[in-house]
Amino acid sequence: MKVSLFVNHRCNLRCVYCYNGQEFDRRMPWDIARRAIDFGLDNSKKGYLLLSFFGGEPLLEIELMEKAVDYAAAEARKREKRLFLSLSTNGTLLDSRRLDFLRRHDFNVQVSFDGVAEAQDTTRRFPNGNSSHRKVDSHVRQLLEAGFALRVISVIDPRTVHLLGDSFEYLMDLKVPHIYFAPNYLGDWEEDACDRFEAALADLGDRYVARLRAGEDVRLDPLNGKIVTHVVPGSSERVACPFGVEEIAVSPTGRIYPCDRLVRQDDPNSEVCIGDLDRGLDLARRDAMVEAKSSCDPECAACELRPRCMYWCGCANYETTGSPGKVSPLLCWFERCFIAEADRVAGLLFAEENPVFLRRFYRPKDRKQ
């Protein structure tokens, strides 16, 4: 089971597309963290707990994180369950104390970092307007030097979409092992911005091909993921998130949500709140949301791309349409663009029998067919 501790509603950056509440400053008390860990261990049916720290900026709460990890490790040993740890951070606070803590406990680390300085500083500045790029760049380098298998999440925003290819090259040159470009679905995607995205995506695909031709093993999503959905039919639906069933997020007030992206303002009357630590899960509400998320939008049912599409993402759907099961036209368009570009670059590399591409995506027996 995955339990995300949404340890605060506060952050030391002011990202222009932040989807969390800024009008209040709230931290998770220790008692909430402890009870959330117990809840996860008690309800884990697969012999492990994935404990994730999210915010706001979770590294602002380093004392709480240290206490929570010590407690979770001790309780997991008592219950003979395995413990895995992950962190989503903006990368600005990685001093020696925090870096040593993450290393000692073998954290899986994900950094939100938009790439080249112009992209990062257009969207992710400090409250006083100062640049955050140099600091995050330095800390990403430290994480990589320390041996972390780092994942960098870069947001595709209309204001910076023209920098997509440059940011890819920059992150590749840093030797980031896994790059994920994630659209800002709430951005101002007018026609000209959509045109710029299509041009930037084609440029990104060309750069991706060039890197593989140079012998580099590129782990770039969504392109890699969309190639996999062609090679392994049905893989998109098999990796669909365990929304509210094997995954929950606990807010600073102890309310429970099916995903950390849905905590937002932490409203007790929110239709996506599925319980709290005092009363447990509201199974009827949770099951209704899971059913809505898992059902196929009638407009998607006949689409030939559906097995390769992330129509099942309840968070993205709710964010854009207000329903976990309703797919927005914008999400559909992004998915079509990513699939088309993945097919274009994969077709080139397969025809060339590019060895790096074939090693990553095809077994030897597949190549003989």
Task: Report what the structure shows.
44% of the residues lie in helices and 16% in strands. It has helices at 30-43, 62-78, 96-104, 117-123, 133-145, 164-173, 191-213, 223-231, 235-238, 283-294, 298-301, 314-321, 329-351, 355-361, 364-367, and strands at 2-6, 8-9, 14-15, 26-27, 48-54, 82-89, 108-112, 124-125, 151-156, 178-183, 220-221, 247-250, 255-257, 275-276, 280-281. It has an 11-stranded mixed β-sheet. It is globular and about 55 Å long. It starts with a strand and ends with a helix. Residues 365-369 have low confidence and may be disordered.
What are the segments in which pLDDT stays under 50 over at least 5 consecutive residues? 365-369
- What spatial form do the alpha-carbon principal axes imply? globular
**What is the CATH-assigned architecture of one domain?**
Alpha-Beta Barrel
| Pattern of helices and strands | EEEEHEHEHEHEHEHEHEHHEEEEHHHHHH
Mean pLDDT: 93
CATH topology of one domain: TIM Barrel
How many helices? The count is 15
Helix content: 40-55%
Kindly provide the name of the CATH class of one domain.
Alpha Beta
The termini sit apart by: 39 Å
Which helices and strands, and how do they pair?
Elements: E1 2-6, E2 8-9, E3 14-15, E4 26-27, H1 30-43, E5 48-54, H2 62-78, E6 82-89, H3 96-104, E7 108-112, H4 117-123, E8 124-125, H5 133-145, E9 151-156, H6 164-173, E10 178-183, H7 191-213, E11 220-221, H8 223-231, H9 235-238, E12 247-250, E13 255-257, E14 275-276, E15 280-281, H10 283-294, H11 298-301, H12 314-321, H13 329-351, H14 355-361, H15 364-367
Parallel strand pairs: 1-5, 1-12, 5-6, 6-7, 7-9, 9-10, 10-11
Antiparallel strand pairs: 2-4, 3-8, 12-13, 13-14, 14-15
